[in-house]
Structure formats: C-alpha cells, structure tokens
Amino acid sequence: TENIYDEMERSYPPRDNSCVIPVSGSSQLLYPEEHPREDPVVMARRLGILPGGQWKPLNCHPLFNVAIILPYRNRQTQLAIFMNYIHPFLQSQNLDYRIFVIEQSPMREFNRAKLFNVGYAEATKINDFHCFIFQDIDLIPQNPDNIYACTKMPRHMSSSVNTFRYNLPYTGLFGGAIALTRKQFERVNGFSNVFYGWGGEDDDFYSRLQSRGFQITRFGPNVAQYYMLTHKKEPPSTTRFANLETGARRYDTDGLSNLEYRVLNHQLRPLYSWILADV
Ligand code: NGS
C-alpha cells in the first residue's frame, strides 16, 4: 500500500508537520451497520465539524483539500447512514474536506451528471478546492486505506462493490465514486448535462476522459471495496444510448461551459452543505 501514496496528487506542498495518512494495510472491512447512529448535531460537536460539513486537522498541516459532491433526491435514510459513517472515515485520513449534497428539485427526471456539475460550480465559488470526489450516497467505502483524495490520474474509486461480488463488471465502468482534480475536471468540460434518467452519463464521462488522452487509475480491489446500501433499481432511461452515440460532438459545448441551473435553497447543515437546485 505504500506505492498508493506515491500516486497521490497533493493539494498542498509538503512542509514541517505535514499530516500523514495512516495506512493500515489491514484487510478488515468496515460496515456502516457497525457505526452506532448519532444525532447530527451531537456528532458535529463531538467531531469538531463546522456548519456545512467542513473539517480539517488542527494538529498538522493537511496534504489534501477535497470537496465531496453528492447528488441527492429522496433517500433520507441512506443520507443519514452515509453522513454518520463518512465523517469519522474522512477524519481518520487527516483530510481538509467539505461535503456538499446537491438535491434536485422534483420537477424533472433525476440528472446525476448535471448535479455533479452544479456541485462543482457551487463548491468552486466558495473555496479553491483542489480535488473533487463525485459519488453516490449509497456507496460506503469499506477500507480505511481508500484515500479520499486525488491521484495523478483521474481515479475510479468504487471498482470493487459487494453487489458485484467485489468484481469490476466492465473495464470502462467509471460510475459510483470517482476522484478528479479541478484541472482534470475542467479539461473535459465536466459532465454532460443532457443525461436525464438512469444510466449512461458515467460512460459518457469516461469517453470524455479518453478523448482528452487521460488514462484512468484504480486502487487494488482489496483497497477499493465498497458496500452498497440497498434500494430498488431505477428504470433505465430510453434516451441514454442515443445520447452516448452523439456524445463526442458535444464534449466542448455541453458541460461546465453551458451549465445553467437555479439554486432554489441552500443551508449549512451540521454535517453537510445542502443545495437545492432546479436543473
Ligand atoms: C451500464 C450503464 C452505466 C451504469 C452501469 C452499472 O449499463 O450508466 O451499467 O450500473 N450504462 C448505460 O446504461 C449506457 S449498475 O449495475 O451499477 O446499476 O453505471
């Protein structure tokens, strides 16, 4: 696991008293059920989390500055389980982080990719984040060595999920949880905005990366283990294949470059920054 550290793209230059990321090398998996649920206000106070779900270590200089972007609609229990679990997990890695939940207003079909773009745009207004984790709230990282920070290459983080019996279903899968630096994300113009409904947006994003010459990286299957919280499957969108086929024409014009949305509401909640957006 020591070479994982060499693959990381630091947000801050190393200096005296830089934080270290403890690498356990342990294969002991964590499960969300084993984390006793705590009231969010109590947890924030106990762990020193600032309003809006921000934290950084105070006894050393963090090496990584990370925004975690979570698209959301209608999954209250999963959100609570995720937050209860993820803060101690991130703190154990000594990251300087902030969590954003981007909720889509009820009007249209869910657009995961566009919500990622919105989260990126809103986070960037607040702070000069160096690294972005884009991920679903139903995915729980099970190995504390799965560092929630960026690598030199865009990284597919959730390559080993329990529902696939910890196997990668196909090489080009770039869904679930991914990590990109601000530079990498800007280079591909973010995600496409046209993928309403389930499926395809992650495949389109993978093609964007390939078209710009990016190699992607993954940590080993024992490090990249995730536990998926169960829910019923969404019906796949009927337009996803057509959007994928014509995707390449839109890489430069569809994404961060033409992003339009309305923020309907926002709050600094104890464990995360909440943004309600009409997309
Ligand atoms: C592909 C989807 C992806 C999706 C992946 C895994 O078929 O968006 O399955 O889905 N692509 C298309 O529909 C074109 S999963 O089995 O995790 O539900 O991420």
Task: Give a summary of the structure in a few sentences.
With 279 residues, the protein is α/β, with parallel strands linked by helices.
Structural notes for this entry:
With 279 residues, the protein is of the alpha/beta class. It contains seven helices and eleven strands. The strands form two sheets. Strands 1, 2, 3, 4, 6, 8, 10 and 11 form an eight-stranded mixed sheet that branches. Strands 5-9-7 form a three-stranded mixed sheet. A hairpin with a 4-residue loop joins strand 10 (262-268) and strand 11. The longest helix has 17 residues, at 76-92. 41% of the residues are buried. The chain binds 2-acetamido-2-deoxy-6-O-sulfo-beta-D-glucopyranose.
Radius of gyration: 18 Å
| Mean pLDDT score | 95
Assign a percent range to the helix content.
10-25%
Instruction: List cofactors, ions and other ligands.
Output: 2-acetamido-2-deoxy-6-O-sulfo-beta-D-glucopyranose
Which spans of ≥5 residues are poorly predicted at pLDDT below 50?
none
- Based on secondary structure, the structural category is alpha/beta
Note the gap between the termini.
41 Å
Largest sheet: 8 strands, mixed
Q: Please report the number of helical segments.
A: 7
How much of the residues is beta strand, in percent? Answer: 15-25%
Helix and strand run: HHEEHEHEEEEEHHEHEE
Would you count the extended β strands for me?
11
The oligomeric state of the chains shown is: single chain
Could you say which overall geometry the principal axes of the C-alpha atoms support?
globular
